[in-house]
Amino acid sequence: MDLTPTPQQLQPAHCSDSEWALRCQLADAYHLVDYFGWTETIFNHISARIPGSDHYLVNPFGLNYDEVTPANLLKVDLAGHKVEPSVYDANPAGFALHSAIHGAREDVHCVMHTHTTEVSAIALKRAGFGHDDFYGAQLTGRVGYHTFEGITLFADEKSRMLSSLGDKHILVLRNHGVAVCEMDIARTFFLLWTVQRAAEIQCTAGAMAGDNVALPGAVSQRCADLTAQLIREDDFAEKFFNAMVRQMRSRQSRRG
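Structure tokens predicted for Class II aldolase/adducin family protein (256 residues):
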């Protein structure tokens, strides 16, 4: 008999059903980033806005991504300070990038930031992301670039980061990494996955001899427009996210 508590049994009495569902999905997102090997040890954040508020859920500083649970996620304000008691510490400095985007973009409810080897390599290159492969084409016209100013700690950089992002949903932090943002967790994860795949393919192709087959701009733009249309559909990204969670849990259970 399996006596493992269900997520519902672990829900604190003071936590609404809608917030708990958000916490469960955000914990899954952290676990997926760990599962795919996109973590940077205890660093970086995935943040999600609690609907109808200026409060956000984010990982406790010092925990690995696979240690994040719905219950230990921190609730913070735009400054990254805890608004509910927790035995865990917040990392206000590391929340600077997220707070800038959340505070300025009403259309954004989730921000994911990574430093994978492939993404960081693209961020280092002057040309940035190419748009000639299947995934890179989907990023056409969707990427902003922000000049590196050092570790993202200081409030005065926020306005410049927002100017670099504009109305886009992907911000390449030059010499650093990437931040992606969307209207919910599932859509943001799908966008991060697409960005990561584009970076992997571009890095691999760049290491191979021979010229790439260039795509006409109209073709790559059409790919980007079609992807944006799919993301706007209510269940497309949700189906993708849930499938990845099932895959992760299935493989983990077989290993266990």
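Strands lie at 46-49, 56-58, 74-76, 110-114, 143-146, 170-173, 177-182.
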